[in-house]
Every structure is written in structure tokens, then in C-alpha cells.
Amino acid sequence: MPLLIFMIGTCFGSFISCMSHRYITHESILGRSHCDYCGHTLHVLDLIPVLSYILLKGQCRYCHHKLNKSLLVHELMWTPCQGH
Length: 84
Ligand SMILES: [Zn+2]
Hints:
The chain has one domain (2-77). By secondary structure, the protein is mostly helical. It contains three helices and no strands. The protein starts with a helix and ends in a 7-residue tail after the last helix. 44% of the residues lie in helices and 0% in strands. Bound molecules: zinc ion. The site of zinc ion has 8 residues, from loops. It comes from Catenibacterium faecis. This is Prepilin peptidase.
């Protein structure tokens, strides 16, 4: 159960982070996620919060540009603290 809550929290954090970024950059909230550096549309396996960042070693699968660490922080920010 704690893992499920963690995953839901990271998904929520990822969604909020994505919507914030799109709002700031005046992008449509519709459409597929893409790399900000090369523009390549991300595969569904690239979109798993936290796990994808770790497996891809914090870089884009396609252009290998280092991703901003704030992406990971934002995904983790929405996970509830266990035991509180
Ligand atoms: Zn890229």
C-alpha cells in the first residue's frame, strides 16, 4: 500500500510539474510530452515518474542532454511522508 501511495504521489507531482511548465512556456496542455532540448516525443516508458529519471540516469534517451534535477524534485514533492 505505501508503494501505491508513493506512485500516485509521484504521478500527481509529475502532472502538476508538466502543467506548470506548459503554462509558463505558453504550450498547449494537450499533446504528447516531449524533450525540451531535442523535441523528440517521449515514449511511455520515459514517463514513469522517478523510475524513468533513475533508469535514464537523468538524461534524455534520444539526445542524451542532462535533464534538470528539479523535475525529479517536483515529482518527489507530492509524495506523502510515511508515518505522519
Ligand atoms: Zn532530448
